[in-house]
Automatic annotation (TrEMBL):
GO MF: flavin adenine dinucleotide binding; NAD(P)H dehydrogenase (quinone) activity; oxidoreductase activity, acting on a sulfur group of donors, NAD(P) as acceptor
Cofactor note: Binds 1 FAD per subunit.
Gene3D superfamilies tied to this protein: 3.30.390.30, FAD/NAD(P)-binding domain
The organism's taxonomic lineage, starting at the top: Bacteria, Pseudomonadati, Pseudomonadota, Alphaproteobacteria, Hyphomicrobiales
One Pfam assignment: Pyr_redox_dim
Cofactor names: FAD
Family indicated by similarity: Belongs to the class-I pyridine nucleotide-disulfide oxidoreductase family.
The FAD/NAD(P)-binding domain, residue ranges: 8-323
Disulfide bond positions: 44-49
Name listed for the protein in its UniProt record: Dihydrolipoamide dehydrogenase
Domain Pyridine nucleotide-disulphide oxidoreductase dimerisation intervals: 346-449
Organism: Chelatococcus daeguensis
Amino acid sequence: MAETLRPDLCIVGAGSAGLSVAAAAAAFGVPVVLIERGEMGGDCLNVGCVPSKALIAAARRAHDIRQAGAFGLGTLDPQVNYARVREHVHSVIGAIAPNDSAARFTALGVRVVRASARFVARDTLEAGNVIVKPRRFVLATGSRPAVPAIAGLDSVPFLTNETAFDLTRRPEHLVIVGGGTIGLELAQAHRRLGAPVTVIEAGRALGREDPELAAHVLAALRRDGVAIRENATVSEVAGEDGDIRLVVENRGTRTELKASHLLVATGRRPATDGLELEAAGIAHDERGIAVDQHLRTSNRRVYAIGDCAGPDGGGRQFTHVANYHAGLVIRSALFRLRPRVDMRAMPRVTFTDPELAVVGMTEEEARADGGRITVLRWPVAENDRAQAERRTEGEIKVILGRGGRILGCGIAAPGAGELITPWTLAMTRNLRIRDLAGHTVPYPTLSEISRRVAMSYYTPSAAKPMVRRLIGFLRRFG
Ligand SMILES: Cc1cc2nc3c(=O)[nH]c(=O)nc-3n(C[C@H](O)[C@H](O)[C@H](O)COP(=O)(O)OP(=O)(O)OC[C@H]3O[C@@H](n4cnc5c(N)ncnc54)[C@H](O)[C@@H]3O)c2cc1C
Ligand SMILES: NC(=O)c1ccc[n+]([C@@H]2O[C@H](COP(=O)([O-])OP(=O)(O)OC[C@H]3O[C@@H](n4cnc5c(N)ncnc54)[C@H](O)[C@@H]3O)[C@@H](O)[C@H]2O)c1
Protein backbone atom coordinates (compact mmCIF):
# COMPACT_ATOMS: atom_id res chain seq x y z
CA MET A 1 0.00 0.00 0.00
CA ALA A 2 1.21 3.50 -0.79
CA GLU A 3 2.75 5.48 2.07
CA THR A 4 1.45 9.05 2.54
CA LEU A 5 4.00 11.72 3.50
CA ARG A 6 3.11 15.21 4.78
CA PRO A 7 6.36 17.20 4.86
CA ASP A 8 6.70 20.99 4.82
CA LEU A 9 8.50 20.87 1.48
CA CYS A 10 8.37 18.40 -1.39
CA ILE A 11 11.12 19.00 -3.96
CA VAL A 12 11.05 17.33 -7.37
CA GLY A 13 14.50 16.96 -8.93
CA ALA A 14 17.83 16.44 -7.17
CA GLY A 15 19.93 18.62 -9.47
CA SER A 16 21.68 21.88 -8.56
CA ALA A 17 18.40 23.67 -7.78
CA GLY A 18 16.61 20.93 -5.84
CA LEU A 19 19.65 19.90 -3.81
CA SER A 20 20.33 23.49 -2.74
CA VAL A 21 16.78 23.90 -1.44
CA ALA A 22 16.89 20.50 0.28
CA ALA A 23 20.23 21.19 2.01
CA ALA A 24 19.16 24.63 3.23
CA ALA A 25 15.73 23.47 4.42
CA ALA A 26 17.26 20.48 6.22
CA ALA A 27 19.76 22.81 7.92
CA PHE A 28 16.77 24.71 9.40
CA GLY A 29 15.24 21.42 10.58
CA VAL A 30 12.36 21.57 8.11
CA PRO A 31 10.82 18.20 7.07
CA VAL A 32 11.68 17.66 3.38
CA VAL A 33 10.90 15.01 0.77
CA LEU A 34 13.22 15.02 -2.25
CA ILE A 35 12.21 13.05 -5.34
CA GLU A 36 14.66 12.09 -8.10
CA ARG A 37 14.02 9.78 -11.04
CA GLY A 38 17.53 9.72 -12.48
CA GLU A 39 21.03 10.32 -11.12
CA MET A 40 21.45 12.36 -7.95
CA GLY A 41 23.19 15.64 -8.86
CA GLY A 42 21.23 16.14 -12.10
CA ASP A 43 22.76 17.52 -15.27
CA CYS A 44 25.50 19.66 -13.79
CA LEU A 45 27.25 16.79 -12.04
CA ASN A 46 26.54 13.98 -14.47
CA VAL A 47 26.29 15.35 -18.01
CA GLY A 48 26.89 19.10 -17.79
CA CYS A 49 29.26 21.47 -15.98
CA VAL A 50 31.43 18.90 -14.25
CA PRO A 51 32.23 16.52 -17.13
CA SER A 52 32.58 19.42 -19.59
CA LYS A 53 35.04 21.25 -17.34
CA ALA A 54 36.97 18.02 -16.69
CA LEU A 55 37.18 17.40 -20.45
CA ILE A 56 38.30 21.00 -21.00
CA ALA A 57 40.98 20.54 -18.32
CA ALA A 58 42.36 17.48 -20.14
CA ALA A 59 42.27 19.33 -23.46
CA ARG A 60 44.08 22.30 -21.92
CA ARG A 61 46.94 20.00 -20.83
CA ALA A 62 47.20 18.59 -24.37
CA HIS A 63 47.29 22.14 -25.73
CA ASP A 64 49.97 23.20 -23.23
CA ILE A 65 52.14 20.27 -24.26
CA ARG A 66 51.88 21.32 -27.92
CA GLN A 67 52.75 24.91 -26.97
CA ALA A 68 55.82 23.89 -24.94
CA GLY A 69 58.20 24.82 -27.76
CA ALA A 70 57.51 28.53 -27.30
CA PHE A 71 58.79 28.23 -23.71
CA GLY A 72 62.07 26.67 -24.82
CA LEU A 73 60.99 23.17 -23.85
CA GLY A 74 61.04 21.49 -27.26
CA THR A 75 58.04 20.77 -29.41
CA LEU A 76 56.01 17.84 -28.10
CA ASP A 77 53.03 15.88 -29.34
CA PRO A 78 50.65 14.71 -26.58
CA GLN A 79 49.61 11.06 -26.65
CA VAL A 80 45.85 11.41 -26.22
CA ASN A 81 44.00 8.29 -25.14
CA TYR A 82 40.25 8.96 -25.31
CA ALA A 83 39.39 5.99 -23.08
CA ARG A 84 41.76 7.31 -20.39
CA VAL A 85 40.40 10.84 -20.79
CA ARG A 86 36.91 9.42 -20.26
CA GLU A 87 38.17 7.72 -17.07
CA HIS A 88 39.55 11.07 -15.88
CA VAL A 89 36.19 12.76 -16.56
CA HIS A 90 34.25 10.08 -14.73
CA SER A 91 36.64 10.02 -11.80
CA VAL A 92 36.07 13.77 -11.35
CA ILE A 93 32.30 13.12 -11.32
CA GLY A 94 32.95 10.31 -8.82
CA ALA A 95 34.95 12.60 -6.55
CA ILE A 96 32.12 15.14 -6.34
CA ALA A 97 29.18 12.67 -6.34
CA PRO A 98 29.21 11.96 -2.56
CA ASN A 99 28.24 15.62 -1.93
CA ASP A 100 25.06 15.10 -3.95
CA SER A 101 24.32 11.52 -2.89
CA ALA A 102 21.12 10.10 -1.44
CA ALA A 103 23.19 8.87 1.53
CA ARG A 104 24.39 12.39 2.35
CA PHE A 105 20.94 13.92 2.07
CA THR A 106 19.36 11.11 4.08
CA ALA A 107 21.96 11.79 6.78
CA LEU A 108 20.94 15.47 6.70
CA GLY A 109 17.39 14.36 7.54
CA VAL A 110 15.89 14.54 4.03
CA ARG A 111 13.57 11.75 2.90
CA VAL A 112 14.93 10.83 -0.55
CA VAL A 113 12.57 9.02 -2.92
CA ARG A 114 14.10 7.52 -6.07
CA ALA A 115 11.14 7.56 -8.48
CA SER A 116 9.40 9.63 -11.14
CA ALA A 117 7.00 12.22 -9.72
CA ARG A 118 3.60 13.15 -11.13
CA PHE A 119 0.77 15.32 -9.83
CA VAL A 120 -2.55 13.66 -9.13
CA ALA A 121 -4.26 16.75 -7.63
CA ARG A 122 -3.48 20.42 -6.87
CA ASP A 123 -2.01 19.43 -3.51
CA THR A 124 -0.92 15.85 -4.11
CA LEU A 125 1.92 14.17 -5.92
CA GLU A 126 2.68 10.51 -6.48
CA ALA A 127 6.17 9.01 -6.81
CA GLY A 128 6.70 5.26 -6.86
CA ASN A 129 4.93 3.93 -3.83
CA VAL A 130 4.64 7.21 -1.95
CA ILE A 131 1.94 9.87 -1.99
CA VAL A 132 3.14 13.33 -0.93
CA LYS A 133 0.88 16.06 0.45
CA PRO A 134 3.27 18.85 1.51
CA ARG A 135 2.68 22.43 2.56
CA ARG A 136 4.72 23.60 -0.47
CA PHE A 137 6.15 22.03 -3.63
CA VAL A 138 9.38 23.07 -5.33
CA LEU A 139 9.70 21.89 -8.94
CA ALA A 140 13.34 21.67 -9.99
CA THR A 141 13.11 19.26 -12.90
CA GLY A 142 15.74 20.88 -15.12
CA SER A 143 16.01 20.78 -18.90
CA ARG A 144 16.83 18.40 -21.73
CA PRO A 145 18.56 18.94 -25.07
CA ALA A 146 16.28 20.58 -27.67
CA VAL A 147 16.69 18.59 -30.87
CA PRO A 148 15.95 20.51 -34.10
CA ALA A 149 13.73 19.18 -36.88
CA ILE A 150 16.35 18.08 -39.42
CA ALA A 151 15.28 15.64 -42.14
CA GLY A 152 16.72 12.19 -41.38
CA LEU A 153 18.00 13.04 -37.88
CA ASP A 154 15.66 10.56 -36.20
CA SER A 155 17.26 7.65 -38.06
CA VAL A 156 20.90 8.67 -37.53
CA PRO A 157 22.87 8.09 -34.32
CA PHE A 158 23.77 11.44 -32.78
CA LEU A 159 25.26 12.67 -29.53
CA THR A 160 23.92 15.22 -27.08
CA ASN A 161 25.41 16.34 -23.77
CA GLU A 162 23.73 13.27 -22.27
CA THR A 163 25.99 10.89 -24.25
CA ALA A 164 28.94 13.03 -25.37
CA PHE A 165 31.09 12.31 -22.30
CA ASP A 166 31.24 8.58 -22.96
CA LEU A 167 33.40 8.56 -26.09
CA THR A 168 36.22 6.04 -25.78
CA ARG A 169 37.80 6.68 -29.20
CA ARG A 170 38.82 9.89 -30.89
CA PRO A 171 36.23 10.95 -33.50
CA GLU A 172 37.62 10.98 -37.04
CA HIS A 173 35.49 14.05 -37.68
CA LEU A 174 33.16 15.53 -35.08
CA VAL A 175 30.45 17.77 -36.52
CA ILE A 176 28.65 19.92 -33.94
CA VAL A 177 25.31 21.52 -34.77
CA GLY A 178 24.99 24.70 -32.69
CA GLY A 179 27.69 27.27 -31.98
CA GLY A 180 26.48 28.29 -28.51
CA THR A 181 28.09 27.60 -25.16
CA ILE A 182 27.95 23.80 -25.27
CA GLY A 183 28.94 23.64 -28.95
CA LEU A 184 32.01 25.86 -28.62
CA GLU A 185 33.26 24.53 -25.27
CA LEU A 186 33.15 20.96 -26.59
CA ALA A 187 34.44 21.92 -30.06
CA GLN A 188 37.65 23.38 -28.65
CA ALA A 189 38.09 20.54 -26.15
CA HIS A 190 37.80 17.81 -28.78
CA ARG A 191 39.99 19.70 -31.24
CA ARG A 192 42.71 20.03 -28.61
CA LEU A 193 42.36 16.32 -27.90
CA GLY A 194 43.19 15.75 -31.55
CA ALA A 195 39.82 15.35 -33.29
CA PRO A 196 38.99 17.32 -36.45
CA VAL A 197 35.93 19.43 -35.54
CA THR A 198 33.40 21.43 -37.58
CA VAL A 199 30.72 23.64 -36.00
CA ILE A 200 27.56 24.46 -37.98
CA GLU A 201 25.81 27.53 -36.55
CA ALA A 202 22.49 28.86 -37.90
CA GLY A 203 23.25 32.46 -36.92
CA ARG A 204 26.32 34.01 -35.31
CA ALA A 205 28.45 31.79 -33.08
CA LEU A 206 28.13 32.95 -29.44
CA GLY A 207 25.37 35.13 -30.86
CA ARG A 208 24.12 36.35 -27.47
CA GLU A 209 27.50 37.80 -26.54
CA ASP A 210 29.19 41.09 -27.44
CA PRO A 211 30.52 40.46 -30.99
CA GLU A 212 33.88 42.10 -30.20
CA LEU A 213 34.47 39.85 -27.20
CA ALA A 214 33.12 36.76 -28.99
CA ALA A 215 35.54 37.49 -31.85
CA HIS A 216 38.52 36.81 -29.53
CA VAL A 217 37.09 33.40 -28.64
CA LEU A 218 36.24 32.50 -32.23
CA ALA A 219 39.70 33.56 -33.43
CA ALA A 220 41.29 31.31 -30.79
CA LEU A 221 39.13 28.34 -31.76
CA ARG A 222 39.96 28.85 -35.43
CA ARG A 223 43.68 29.06 -34.56
CA ASP A 224 43.28 25.72 -32.79
CA GLY A 225 41.87 24.35 -36.06
CA VAL A 226 38.12 24.29 -35.36
CA ALA A 227 36.13 24.96 -38.56
CA ILE A 228 33.22 27.27 -37.71
CA ARG A 229 30.53 27.79 -40.34
CA GLU A 230 28.16 30.61 -39.40
CA ASN A 231 24.78 31.38 -40.99
CA ALA A 232 24.66 27.71 -41.98
CA THR A 233 22.08 25.02 -41.28
CA VAL A 234 21.96 21.27 -41.69
CA SER A 235 19.00 20.45 -43.95
CA GLU A 236 19.45 16.67 -44.27
CA VAL A 237 21.28 13.89 -42.46
CA ALA A 238 21.75 10.24 -43.38
CA GLY A 239 24.08 7.37 -42.60
CA GLU A 240 25.05 5.22 -39.68
CA ASP A 241 27.44 5.04 -36.76
CA GLY A 242 30.84 6.31 -37.88
CA ASP A 243 29.65 7.28 -41.36
CA ILE A 244 27.22 10.21 -41.29
CA ARG A 245 26.51 12.44 -44.30
CA LEU A 246 25.13 15.92 -43.86
CA VAL A 247 23.79 18.49 -46.29
CA VAL A 248 24.73 21.99 -45.13
CA GLU A 249 23.00 25.08 -46.54
CA ASN A 250 24.73 28.42 -46.37
CA ARG A 251 23.25 31.50 -48.10
CA GLY A 252 21.65 29.39 -50.84
CA THR A 253 24.68 27.11 -51.35
CA ARG A 254 24.42 23.39 -50.55
CA THR A 255 27.52 21.44 -49.57
CA GLU A 256 27.98 17.88 -48.35
CA LEU A 257 29.90 17.05 -45.22
CA LYS A 258 30.98 13.69 -43.82
CA ALA A 259 31.19 13.06 -40.10
CA SER A 260 32.14 10.13 -37.91
CA HIS A 261 30.18 11.70 -35.02
CA LEU A 262 27.40 14.24 -34.86
CA LEU A 263 26.76 16.28 -31.71
CA VAL A 264 23.55 18.29 -31.39
CA ALA A 265 23.93 21.36 -29.13
CA THR A 266 21.11 23.65 -30.24
CA GLY A 267 19.69 24.77 -26.90
CA ARG A 268 17.55 23.29 -24.16
CA ARG A 269 13.88 22.64 -23.47
CA PRO A 270 12.34 22.43 -19.99
CA ALA A 271 11.91 18.91 -18.59
CA THR A 272 8.25 18.71 -17.63
CA ASP A 273 7.43 15.37 -19.24
CA GLY A 274 5.53 12.98 -17.02
CA LEU A 275 4.88 15.60 -14.29
CA GLU A 276 1.22 15.96 -15.29
CA LEU A 277 1.25 19.65 -14.40
CA GLU A 278 -2.34 20.05 -15.63
CA ALA A 279 -3.57 17.91 -12.72
CA ALA A 280 -2.23 20.60 -10.36
CA GLY A 281 -3.33 23.60 -12.45
CA ILE A 282 0.26 24.63 -13.21
CA ALA A 283 0.61 26.70 -16.39
CA HIS A 284 3.58 25.95 -18.65
CA ASP A 285 4.68 26.21 -22.26
CA GLU A 286 7.73 25.38 -24.37
CA ARG A 287 9.73 28.08 -22.52
CA GLY A 288 9.20 26.44 -19.13
CA ILE A 289 6.90 26.41 -16.12
CA ALA A 290 5.30 29.86 -15.88
CA VAL A 291 6.51 31.68 -12.75
CA ASP A 292 6.11 35.16 -11.35
CA GLN A 293 8.99 37.27 -10.04
CA HIS A 294 8.86 35.33 -6.77
CA LEU A 295 9.18 32.01 -8.64
CA ARG A 296 5.58 31.06 -7.80
CA THR A 297 3.64 29.11 -10.40
CA SER A 298 -0.05 29.48 -11.23
CA ASN A 299 -0.67 27.10 -8.29
CA ARG A 300 0.20 29.23 -5.23
CA ARG A 301 1.42 26.16 -3.36
CA VAL A 302 4.06 25.42 -5.99
CA TYR A 303 7.39 27.08 -6.89
CA ALA A 304 9.46 26.30 -10.01
CA ILE A 305 13.20 26.97 -10.02
CA GLY A 306 16.36 26.31 -12.03
CA ASP A 307 16.33 25.34 -15.70
CA CYS A 308 12.63 24.37 -15.72
CA ALA A 309 11.45 27.86 -14.68
CA GLY A 310 9.97 30.05 -17.43
CA PRO A 311 11.27 33.48 -18.60
CA ASP A 312 10.26 35.46 -15.49
CA GLY A 313 12.70 33.30 -13.53
CA GLY A 314 15.39 35.33 -15.30
CA GLY A 315 15.69 33.41 -18.54
CA ARG A 316 19.15 31.98 -17.88
CA GLN A 317 20.08 28.34 -17.37
CA PHE A 318 23.14 28.06 -15.16
CA THR A 319 23.98 26.20 -11.99
CA HIS A 320 24.60 29.44 -10.11
CA VAL A 321 21.17 30.70 -11.24
CA ALA A 322 19.65 27.46 -9.91
CA ASN A 323 21.43 28.04 -6.59
CA TYR A 324 20.28 31.67 -6.51
CA HIS A 325 16.67 30.59 -7.16
CA ALA A 326 17.01 28.09 -4.32
CA GLY A 327 18.00 30.89 -1.93
CA LEU A 328 14.97 32.97 -2.95
CA VAL A 329 12.58 30.06 -2.45
CA ILE A 330 14.00 29.27 0.97
CA ARG A 331 13.40 32.88 2.04
CA SER A 332 9.90 32.81 0.59
CA ALA A 333 8.73 29.34 1.70
CA LEU A 334 10.35 29.28 5.15
CA PHE A 335 10.48 32.93 6.19
CA ARG A 336 7.44 34.27 4.30
CA LEU A 337 9.57 36.99 2.70
CA ARG A 338 8.84 38.06 -0.88
CA PRO A 339 12.23 38.43 -2.60
CA ARG A 340 12.12 39.10 -6.35
CA VAL A 341 14.31 37.60 -9.03
CA ASP A 342 16.97 40.19 -9.89
CA MET A 343 19.36 39.20 -12.65
CA ARG A 344 21.16 42.55 -13.01
CA ALA A 345 24.38 41.28 -11.45
CA MET A 346 24.15 37.65 -12.57
CA PRO A 347 27.41 36.56 -14.22
CA ARG A 348 27.86 33.99 -16.99
CA VAL A 349 30.98 32.34 -18.33
CA THR A 350 31.78 30.41 -21.48
CA PHE A 351 34.69 28.12 -20.58
CA THR A 352 36.60 28.26 -23.83
CA ASP A 353 40.22 29.41 -23.96
CA PRO A 354 40.18 32.37 -23.66
CA GLU A 355 37.13 32.31 -21.44
CA LEU A 356 34.33 34.79 -22.00
CA ALA A 357 32.76 36.17 -18.81
CA VAL A 358 29.99 38.74 -18.62
CA VAL A 359 28.03 40.50 -15.92
CA GLY A 360 25.34 43.09 -16.48
CA MET A 361 24.62 44.71 -19.80
CA THR A 362 26.56 44.36 -23.03
CA GLU A 363 27.35 47.53 -24.98
CA GLU A 364 24.49 46.79 -27.37
CA GLU A 365 22.01 46.30 -24.52
CA ALA A 366 23.17 49.48 -22.78
CA ARG A 367 22.81 51.51 -26.01
CA ALA A 368 19.33 50.08 -26.59
CA ASP A 369 18.46 51.16 -23.04
CA GLY A 370 18.84 54.86 -23.97
CA GLY A 371 21.03 56.91 -21.60
CA ARG A 372 24.57 58.13 -22.27
CA ILE A 373 27.23 55.49 -21.82
CA THR A 374 31.01 55.36 -21.70
CA VAL A 375 32.87 52.28 -22.93
CA LEU A 376 36.25 51.48 -21.38
CA ARG A 377 38.58 48.80 -22.70
CA TRP A 378 41.95 47.34 -21.89
CA PRO A 379 43.74 44.68 -23.96
CA VAL A 380 45.08 41.52 -22.31
CA ALA A 381 48.28 41.94 -24.37
CA GLU A 382 49.12 45.04 -22.23
CA ASN A 383 49.32 42.83 -19.13
CA ASP A 384 52.80 41.70 -18.07
CA ARG A 385 51.68 38.38 -16.61
CA ALA A 386 49.78 37.53 -19.78
CA GLN A 387 52.96 38.17 -21.74
CA ALA A 388 54.97 35.92 -19.41
CA GLU A 389 52.40 33.17 -19.81
CA ARG A 390 52.23 33.77 -23.59
CA ARG A 391 48.44 34.02 -23.34
CA THR A 392 47.68 37.47 -24.68
CA GLU A 393 44.40 37.02 -26.55
CA GLY A 394 41.46 39.09 -25.35
CA GLU A 395 40.32 42.31 -23.72
CA ILE A 396 38.18 43.67 -20.91
CA LYS A 397 35.31 45.95 -21.81
CA VAL A 398 33.37 47.96 -19.23
CA ILE A 399 30.14 49.83 -19.84
CA LEU A 400 29.48 52.83 -17.60
CA GLY A 401 26.50 55.06 -17.10
CA ARG A 402 26.39 58.53 -15.53
CA GLY A 403 28.89 59.29 -12.77
CA GLY A 404 30.87 56.10 -13.37
CA ARG A 405 27.98 53.75 -12.55
CA ILE A 406 28.90 50.25 -13.70
CA LEU A 407 26.28 48.91 -16.12
CA GLY A 408 28.19 45.88 -17.31
CA CYS A 409 31.53 44.22 -17.79
CA GLY A 410 32.67 41.64 -20.33
CA ILE A 411 36.03 39.91 -20.28
CA ALA A 412 37.55 37.70 -22.94
CA ALA A 413 40.76 36.46 -21.31
CA PRO A 414 42.42 33.42 -19.80
CA GLY A 415 40.66 32.85 -16.48
CA ALA A 416 37.95 35.43 -17.25
CA GLY A 417 35.57 33.34 -15.11
CA GLU A 418 37.68 34.24 -12.07
CA LEU A 419 38.35 37.84 -13.16
CA ILE A 420 34.65 38.71 -13.41
CA THR A 421 34.02 38.30 -9.66
CA PRO A 422 35.07 41.80 -8.46
CA TRP A 423 32.82 43.28 -11.16
CA THR A 424 29.92 41.12 -10.00
CA LEU A 425 30.53 42.26 -6.42
CA ALA A 426 30.81 45.89 -7.57
CA MET A 427 27.49 45.68 -9.41
CA THR A 428 25.77 43.85 -6.55
CA ARG A 429 26.91 46.50 -4.06
CA ASN A 430 26.34 49.45 -6.42
CA LEU A 431 30.01 50.41 -6.37
CA ARG A 432 31.34 52.91 -8.92
CA ILE A 433 34.27 52.75 -11.29
CA ARG A 434 36.36 54.81 -8.82
CA ASP A 435 36.10 51.90 -6.36
CA LEU A 436 37.62 49.54 -8.90
CA ALA A 437 40.38 52.03 -9.69
CA GLY A 438 41.11 52.82 -6.06
CA HIS A 439 42.38 49.52 -4.70
CA THR A 440 45.74 47.78 -5.00
CA VAL A 441 46.08 44.65 -7.09
CA PRO A 442 49.16 42.42 -6.74
CA TYR A 443 51.73 42.59 -9.54
CA PRO A 444 52.04 40.68 -11.81
CA THR A 445 48.54 39.23 -12.03
CA LEU A 446 45.88 39.17 -14.71
CA SER A 447 43.60 40.95 -12.23
CA GLU A 448 45.54 44.11 -13.08
CA ILE A 449 43.47 44.39 -16.27
CA SER A 450 40.47 45.25 -14.10
CA ARG A 451 42.31 48.05 -12.32
CA ARG A 452 43.90 49.34 -15.51
CA VAL A 453 40.59 49.52 -17.33
CA ALA A 454 39.07 51.31 -14.34
CA MET A 455 41.96 53.81 -14.22
CA SER A 456 41.55 54.54 -17.92
CA TYR A 457 38.31 56.31 -16.94
CA TYR A 458 40.49 59.08 -15.51
CA THR A 459 42.95 59.33 -18.41
CA PRO A 460 41.10 62.24 -20.10
CA SER A 461 41.16 64.19 -16.80
CA ALA A 462 44.98 63.97 -16.68
CA ALA A 463 45.16 66.06 -19.87
CA LYS A 464 42.73 68.75 -18.64
CA PRO A 465 44.40 72.23 -18.51
CA MET A 466 42.83 72.89 -15.13
CA VAL A 467 44.42 69.78 -13.61
CA ARG A 468 47.79 70.72 -15.10
CA ARG A 469 47.46 74.28 -13.76
CA LEU A 470 46.70 72.85 -10.30
CA ILE A 471 49.85 70.68 -10.42
CA GLY A 472 51.85 73.74 -11.51
CA PHE A 473 50.41 75.79 -8.65
CA LEU A 474 51.20 73.09 -6.04
CA ARG A 475 54.77 72.84 -7.36
CA ARG A 476 55.41 76.33 -5.92
CA PHE A 477 55.23 74.91 -2.40
CA GLY A 478 58.44 72.91 -2.87
C1 LIG B 1 27.13 20.38 -21.28
C2 LIG B 1 26.67 21.37 -20.26
C3 LIG B 1 27.59 22.17 -19.60
C4 LIG B 1 27.16 23.09 -18.65
N1 LIG B 1 28.11 23.86 -18.04
C5 LIG B 1 27.72 24.75 -17.12
C6 LIG B 1 28.69 25.54 -16.44
O1 LIG B 1 29.90 25.42 -16.68
N2 LIG B 1 28.26 26.43 -15.51
C7 LIG B 1 26.93 26.59 -15.23
O2 LIG B 1 26.60 27.41 -14.37
N3 LIG B 1 25.99 25.85 -15.85
C8 LIG B 1 26.36 24.95 -16.79
N4 LIG B 1 25.41 24.18 -17.40
C9 LIG B 1 24.00 24.38 -17.04
C10 LIG B 1 23.65 23.60 -15.75
O3 LIG B 1 24.00 22.25 -15.91
C11 LIG B 1 22.17 23.72 -15.46
O4 LIG B 1 21.80 25.09 -15.46
C12 LIG B 1 21.84 23.11 -14.10
O5 LIG B 1 22.18 21.75 -14.09
C13 LIG B 1 20.35 23.28 -13.81
O6 LIG B 1 20.06 22.67 -12.59
P1 LIG B 1 18.57 22.17 -12.29
O7 LIG B 1 18.61 21.66 -10.89
O8 LIG B 1 17.60 23.20 -12.66
O9 LIG B 1 18.32 20.95 -13.30
P2 LIG B 1 19.03 19.53 -13.43
O10 LIG B 1 20.42 19.56 -12.99
O11 LIG B 1 18.75 19.09 -14.82
O12 LIG B 1 18.23 18.59 -12.41
C14 LIG B 1 16.90 18.24 -12.63
C15 LIG B 1 16.66 16.86 -12.01
O13 LIG B 1 15.26 16.62 -11.98
C16 LIG B 1 15.03 15.24 -12.25
N5 LIG B 1 13.64 15.09 -12.70
C17 LIG B 1 13.07 15.64 -13.80
N6 LIG B 1 11.77 15.32 -13.87
C18 LIG B 1 11.50 14.54 -12.78
C19 LIG B 1 10.34 13.88 -12.30
N7 LIG B 1 9.15 13.97 -12.93
N8 LIG B 1 10.43 13.15 -11.17
C20 LIG B 1 11.61 13.05 -10.50
N9 LIG B 1 12.75 13.65 -10.91
C21 LIG B 1 12.69 14.39 -12.03
C22 LIG B 1 16.06 14.92 -13.31
O14 LIG B 1 16.32 13.54 -13.39
C23 LIG B 1 17.27 15.74 -12.84
O15 LIG B 1 18.14 14.98 -12.04
C24 LIG B 1 25.79 23.23 -18.35
C25 LIG B 1 24.85 22.43 -19.00
C26 LIG B 1 25.27 21.51 -19.94
C27 LIG B 1 24.25 20.66 -20.62
N1 LIG C 1 29.64 27.61 -19.34
C1 LIG C 1 28.37 27.50 -19.00
O1 LIG C 1 27.90 28.10 -18.04
C2 LIG C 1 27.49 26.60 -19.81
C3 LIG C 1 28.06 25.63 -20.62
C4 LIG C 1 27.20 24.85 -21.37
C5 LIG C 1 25.82 25.03 -21.28
N2 LIG C 1 25.33 25.98 -20.48
C6 LIG C 1 23.87 26.21 -20.43
O2 LIG C 1 23.20 25.35 -21.30
C7 LIG C 1 22.48 26.12 -22.25
C8 LIG C 1 22.37 25.39 -23.54
O3 LIG C 1 23.58 25.41 -24.27
P1 LIG C 1 23.53 25.27 -25.84
O4 LIG C 1 24.89 25.55 -26.35
O5 LIG C 1 22.83 24.02 -26.23
O6 LIG C 1 22.50 26.41 -26.24
P2 LIG C 1 22.74 27.92 -26.68
O7 LIG C 1 21.39 28.51 -26.70
O8 LIG C 1 23.82 28.55 -25.91
O9 LIG C 1 23.28 27.78 -28.19
C9 LIG C 1 22.56 27.08 -29.19
C10 LIG C 1 23.07 27.54 -30.54
O10 LIG C 1 22.54 26.67 -31.52
C11 LIG C 1 22.13 27.46 -32.64
N3 LIG C 1 21.12 26.68 -33.35
C12 LIG C 1 19.84 26.44 -32.98
N4 LIG C 1 19.23 25.64 -33.88
C13 LIG C 1 20.16 25.37 -34.85
C14 LIG C 1 20.15 24.60 -36.05
N5 LIG C 1 19.07 23.91 -36.42
N6 LIG C 1 21.27 24.55 -36.79
C15 LIG C 1 22.39 25.23 -36.41
N7 LIG C 1 22.44 25.97 -35.28
C16 LIG C 1 21.35 26.03 -34.51
C17 LIG C 1 21.63 28.75 -32.04
O11 LIG C 1 21.68 29.79 -32.99
C18 LIG C 1 22.62 28.96 -30.89
O12 LIG C 1 23.74 29.70 -31.28
C19 LIG C 1 23.23 27.44 -22.32
O13 LIG C 1 22.42 28.48 -22.80
C20 LIG C 1 23.59 27.63 -20.88
O14 LIG C 1 22.48 28.15 -20.20
C21 LIG C 1 26.14 26.78 -19.74
